[in-house]
């Protein structure tokens, strides 16, 4: 069967690429109102495509962007997996840094360039093609499959918890499968065992009614730009420790087994720096780079605005400043507790005479998997067949906000089988998907469903 499926995948690849290009041409940017109709069109396209390959599928409205639900439930008695993905993408800005139009898929060698190519359209599309391969060669799937493809992942999945609540029974499953993460590096197929959570804020500062002449008032009037700098300087110390009181209280310590497993991965610090163009590595003292990115919490300024930023000089005291700041959270940190602690701390460190408004965008809990679940062994075997290489277990620093909610709600484990590469420019200009990985990914997923079917119950 596996051979027949592999042959089908190879024989139909050219058409599969054309279909994937159609999906990538739809600018489903969830954060932009002007793209609302396109985002819906993307949901409709995806549902229609699910029907073409033999699934039942519908587009269901939410408070925000619609959700695509698809299913094939023809194997009563066999387990059911729920595949989650997202059809929304990040904005394409800055467009002028793209070498080809972001919504015109462009192939160069083994790279397919387009916004969403890897995050996440290409990845969930690989599942659709693996499903198609089974349905078109065998007329059935080896187990039951449900798919939930949402349109708000890139904005923190605000409508999804309510959606899950409403459709909880219909979505019941034995295992969650997600391909929205990365491989450790090319040639090393990967299972991701953990994701960080997030807590995201915007701070608005105001120091006077309006901008002031810096000659007339400089030295006497508070400056919102300076206040922003002072606040930022107090968020972390020189050793990379976050200064918010209580921030580390619940952080789960790294286990010896985790440490050993990270240390067993090939990691060349210089090559890592070269790949992303860094002159130095920073971070919390006492931890390795992988530990800092995967299992330690962090704080970053994501955006900063104040004063005159146009051409030449302008002598002005800015009345306003804006800081976007987020923290990546690790297991056992509670986003709600972090929210309160952070807000209280920034209020305390805001200089006198400056008004502070705190906006909170999103919070999500970190996730860590238990690899002793039998599906993980099946996934390792499938990855090794699909990629013809030994699989690795890693963690990721990024977040998929709904994972924790879903695993708890359904009482299941989550398998993160990502096809991305660290240099694929997710969220940045020239995002691409490695087509060799994609090809191997489709094979892997098809084999994986087969192995899960053979496992019987789990
Ligand atoms: N695909 C990513 C998640 C991801 C990133 C997994 C890096 C593994 C490594 C996802 O689409 C994403 O970008 N998530 C956001 C969530 C945020 C908007 C709440 C993130 O991590 O920034
Ligand atoms: Zn993303």
How is this structure best described in words?
- By secondary structure, the chain is of the alpha+beta class.
- It has 2 domains: 2-195 and 366-455, Zn peptidases (Aminopeptidase), CATH 3.40.630.10; 197-259 and 295-363, Alpha-Beta Plaits (2-Layer Sandwich), CATH 3.30.70.
- It contains 14 helices and 19 strands.
- It has helices at 2-11, 13-24, 36-52, 121-138, 160-166, 214-217, 224-233, 256-263, 269-276, 289-294, 335-349, 374-387, 403-410, 435-455; strands spanning 56-60, 67-72, 80-86, 106-108, 111-113, 144-150, 175-178, 190-192, 194-195, 197-206, 212-213, 298-306, 316-317, 320-329, 355-364, 367-368, 392-394, 414-416, 432-434.
Based on CA atoms alone, the radius of gyration comes out at: 24 Å
Largest sheet: 6 strands, mixed
Residue share in helix = 25-40%
Unreliably modeled segments: none
Number of domain modules: 2
CATH architecture term of the largest domain: 3-Layer(aba) Sandwich
Q: Whole-Å distance between the termini?
A: 22 Å
* Small molecules held by this entry: ligand BES, zinc ion
